[in-house]
Design goal:
Elements lengths: L5 E4 L13 E5 L3 H15 L3 E5 L2 H11 L4 E5 L1 E2 L2 E2 L2 H9 L5 E5 L4 H9 L4 E4 L4 H12 L3 E4 L8 H14 L4 H11 L4 H8 L3 H15 L4 H10 L7
Parallel strand pairs: 2-3, 2-4, 4-7, 7-8
Antiparallel strand pairs: 1-9, 5-6
Helix pairs in contact: 4-6, 7-9, 8-9
């Protein structure tokens, strides 16, 4: 795929120029992909510091220890996060940092979910070096970049609703996100209590808070809302 094979949504006011991106965090559990991408970025952008993490948890620990990077490249499927969960979680920690989702999955619904959750762009792992570099440069200058041929399945109003829903999920604490993930897996409070080694009463307290934050009345509704923004699954 060439650089022409990527198209941008309407550009935003740039937060920074691409030349101001000096430190990047790559979150990908495939060592060869991660190392190859890091080398490509170092050569193409003259970067001296490219941080890497093999999981979402490791990325969060790195951000806490080393501070915020200038940009993030995030794999869609990680050992501890699938679907839009990675974007939603990182957006809470990095509200102004451009986050690029990278994946072999070009499903339109997944792309829509990632963009609604706050991704600056969504690119294919099959991109050549020239197209990859061009796409990242455009994103770092403020554009929203998506694959050529991508067309949102729903109307713009629905996209706005999904974005608002993603923002609500971003208010969940890490523990609440874990509990919601287990709820979506169909686990009862007693099972969640056992899995997380916390009291069942604590589970119930967290669930009450989750329901309040995402404006859900029942567990089934919470699952439906999570599925709407593809929070825990890649499709």
């Amino acid at each position: 795929m060439t650089a022409a094979a990527m198209q941008a949504r309407a550009p935003q006011t740039p937060r920074q120029s691409a030349d101001q991106v000096r430190e990047i965090l790559i979150v990908d559990d495939h060592p060869l992909m991660c190392d190859a991408l890091a080398l490509t970025l170092k050569i193409s952008f003259g970067l001296k510091n490219v941080r890497t993490a093999r999981s979402l948890g490791a990325a969060l620990d790195g951000i806490k220890a080393q501070g915020a990077p200038d940009a993030v490249i995030l794999d869609l499927n990680l050992p501890d996060a699938r679907g839009a969960e990675g974007i939603v979680t990182l957006r809470r920690q990095l509200p102004d940092v451009p986050i690029t989702m990278i994946s072999a999955d070009m499903d339109s619904a997944m792309i829509s979910a990632a963009m609604a959750a706050g991704a600056q762009g969504y690119i294919s792992k099959s991109l050549g070096r020239e197209a990859l570099v061009d796409s990242l440069r455009r994103m770092w200058e403020g554009e929203h970049v998506t694959p050529e041929g991508y067309a949102p399945d729903q109307a713009d109003a629905d996209d706005a609703a999904k974005a608002e829903l993603a923002r609500r999920f971003a208010t969940l604490t890490p523990q609440q996100m874990k509990i919601l993930r287990l709820i979506c897996q169909g686990k009862a409070n007693k099972e969640i209590s056992y899995d997380l080694s916390i009291a069942e009463a604590t589970v119930k307290t967290h669930i009450t808070a989750i329901m309040s934050k995402i404006n859900a009345r029942r567990r089934t509704q919470a699952v439906l809302l999570a599925n709407t923004v593809r929070l825990f699954e890649a499709g």
